[in-house]
Structures are given as C-alpha cells and as structure tokens.
Write a structure and sequence with these properties.
Length: 233
Amino acid sequence: MTATDYDNFADAYAAENESGLFNAYYERPAMLRLADDVSGRRILDAGCGSGPLSAALRARGAVVTSFDVSAAMVNLARQRLGEDADLHVADLSKPLPFADAEFDDVVASLVLHYLEDWSGPLAELHRVLKPGGRLILSVMHPAGFPVTHPDDDYFALTKYSEDYIMDGQTVWLTFWHRPLHAMSDAFAAAGFRIVTISEPPPSPDTPAEMLPPDKVKGSGSFMCFLFFVLESA
Ligand SMILES: C[S@@+](CC[C@H](N)C(=O)[O-])C[C@H]1O[C@@H](n2cnc3c(N)ncnc32)[C@H](O)[C@@H]1O
C-alpha cells in the first residue's frame, strides 16, 4: 500500500466508516469521549478521511483544520464539511503546512499504524501543538497482532496486509505493527507525555446485533483499537 491508496476505495471506506461498528460505534465515540469539552479549541484532524470526526468536533464547538494524504478522501470531507472548511491534502510523513504552536489539540484516528517511521510525524505534530496541547490518537491494538499473526514476532516492527470487505468491495490495507513499548518510546522521544491509555467498550447505543458475540467479553469490551491521550511537553 502506498500512502494514497485510499484514493482507490475512498467511497467504499467512507460508507463503511459512516455506520459500521468499528468506526461509528466504537472508534469515533471513544475519541470524542477522550477529547471531552472541545468548545473553542483549535483542533487539527490528521488523516481526516472523509471528515466524520472533524464534523463531530465542529458540532461540539471546536475550530477544526483537517488534512489527509488522499485527495479523494479530502474531496469527500469537503462535501461533508462545506466549501469554506479548512481542508488540506498533506502527508503526515512530510513537513506539514501549519505554523508552530497553531493548535490546542491534534486528533489522529487510525492513521499512525500506516507509517513505518513515527519519529518525523510525531515531531511535526508536536511542533504544531501549543505547549501543553493534546495529541489524541487511536491505532490498531498491538496485542491483536500475535493473535492474528502467531508466527510473527510481537516485538519486531512488522509490515503486514489484511483484506477487508468495505461496502461490498474487497480492499487490501497494509499496516505497520509495533509493540507497545515502541509506541511509548516514540511518544517520549517526540516530547509527549502519556496522560491516558484507553481500551474502551463500544458505545452504549451500539445495536446489539452489531456486536460480534465471539469477541465481546464479560466486561462488554473487545480487543480492537488502542487509544492514547498525550500531552505536549
Ligand atoms: C482508517 S482511515 C481513518 C480516517 C479518519 N481518521 C476516520 O477515523 O474517520 C485512515 C486515513 O489515513 C489516511 N492516511 C494514510 N496515510 C497517511 C499519511 N501519510 N498522511 C496523511 N493521511 C494518511 C488515509 O488516506 C485515510 O483517509
């Protein structure tokens, strides 16, 4: 997968993201809960996709700037957010077109796991955040990797691909697995302090028939994504 592969299945991904269990009832509600009161805050949505999180943050009073490497995803976000939305095509692996200390918060939903190297991206996100600003992010839960890839080494940075059915279309996504300590080391090296690690349950309004019975444990939670709230030092 190249960084712009979402150009090839932007519509299918956006449709799946809109109402599917993992995004609509799990990931997005969790990010919004972690962000809490965002009224008046300047927020950068990194890897915004078709913009559902940007829209939800804006509806809660945030002033949102968004970017994605995929022009097709940014087009979808523009349709959702309107012509005057502050939207950019930009690559998180390269220098970002934003000023130092421009944002109170950065949200990065399900994007960092596409990147082999986190040092440059995290340094850039640190640069555009105000001192004390928050980076709120979600990634594939690293503990899921040894379950799905029992022959691979949990402790190694590893590239892997998986196929997904999105809106009836089969698409291949390529990820970079890294162990938990490599994530925390990268956060610390970029000048972030971990405030919260979250493994939340799905949203209470999830329709029961959407929940995978084999995955939901007694706590009502399931292994899927891992969430962090970081503070910029
Ligand atoms: C799983 S989607 C998540 C979209 C959105 N954050 C959400 O949760 O609805 C991942 C997004 O990350 C974007 N992406 C992947 N690599 C990127 C990069 N290097 N820079 C910016 N965006 C990237 C993809 O184009 C895609 O839109």
